């Protein structure tokens, strides 16, 4: 079932919708189009990163830290990043010609596999008609209908260009609707890089060890209150001391931005009760979990419907997209239906809509999440077993296409628990895996992702690589 790896680390104890717990027989899984059957064998004999090194050295003079998003720079795992030439299915190739099994998936979007033939064909067709209209197009209706029918909380949706933008918009909306300014966020949860959220944020901020960022005015975070994840008492205290002032509680319903951390049983339910009682809006930031934990996201998986939801990553199918949505009465506050202003030159552009539509179509086919459950379960169990066998403290867990493990005894219920991980060991493990042809997120504090293109062979190779590397570090 899509839940915990028993006995080790994170116990999920999830109450999930039972239709997701069916397991798929291996004979059925052959229905998924696997684009590449490639071999990583014997590639590492001459594992060199010379071209990557040259390219990255040049990049460092051109862009801050050589990258356009911090975690890509590999700072927390040492060495320097590999520079990518191409991706296909579950694999990627760097500019030195090395091949990797990829568990980053462009940080989530690539859930049906990279550079899917049908997505590429649809994009090529759309492109013939142009790349941006700055005016309404039919494709927006199509994706909006798909999102609305999939995600329980969403009756109306606004498309934007990134998860960050989605979270900025939803925050303004929550404040506009409630007429209140304070919000609660959780330590280690990442909601993009907008000022009000850069307080105890996870992801790159966690990786770099920055408690927050210079340049964020105190006034911008003054109304942002924080609590440890999974700590309902701390949330109750905040509600008690800020009666009638809280606009929203925002969270990752399953944390991915300080490593994989699922909610304790009843945590989401308690948040729903508290927010309802206090006239506060509950916001699920499903930029990562949307269409990944199930077709209807974490809210469908756990059966808890928030007031508002943010999406991103998967719904853009590899192109830049974000979205926020929720109950009609709230969404109708958004301009031009209502007075809350938010806009975007490229929002709803036909290319991003097309990639999103094609990706969701594939995900909607029967058996997809069961397949993700099966292969991700095998992967995580294999890594944890390998860790045990080689005497490492390790814990981990997964839900369908999202997983994580920490080099610590566990259990991990929040960011402070996660920070007990042996990050130096993770760095050694990381470099070892890279050499074995396995590309993981370059930080202990990021979740991993599988896709429909990952094969049994990929999983078995990854487990074998993990065993080999774990026995050496
Ligand atoms: C990735 C992510 C964001 C930010 O999305 P961008 O597209 O990178 O701006 C926000 N929230 C969560 C939960 C995310 O995982």
Automatic annotation (TrEMBL):
Pfam families, alphabetized: Aminotran_3
Q: Which cofactor does it need?
A: pyridoxal 5'-phosphate
Per its UniProt record, what Gene3D superfamilies does this chain match? Aspartate Aminotransferase, domain 1, Type I PLP-dependent aspartate aminotransferase-like (Major domain)
Keyword annotations for this protein?
Isomerase, Porphyrin biosynthesis, Pyridoxal phosphate
Residues annotated as coiled-coil are none
Q: So what does this thing catalyse? A: (S)-4-amino-5-oxopentanoate = 5-aminolevulinate
What Gene Ontology terms for biological process does this UniProt record contain? chlorophyll biosynthetic process; protoporphyrinogen IX biosynthetic process
Q: What is this protein called?
A: glutamate-1-semialdehyde 2,1-aminomutase
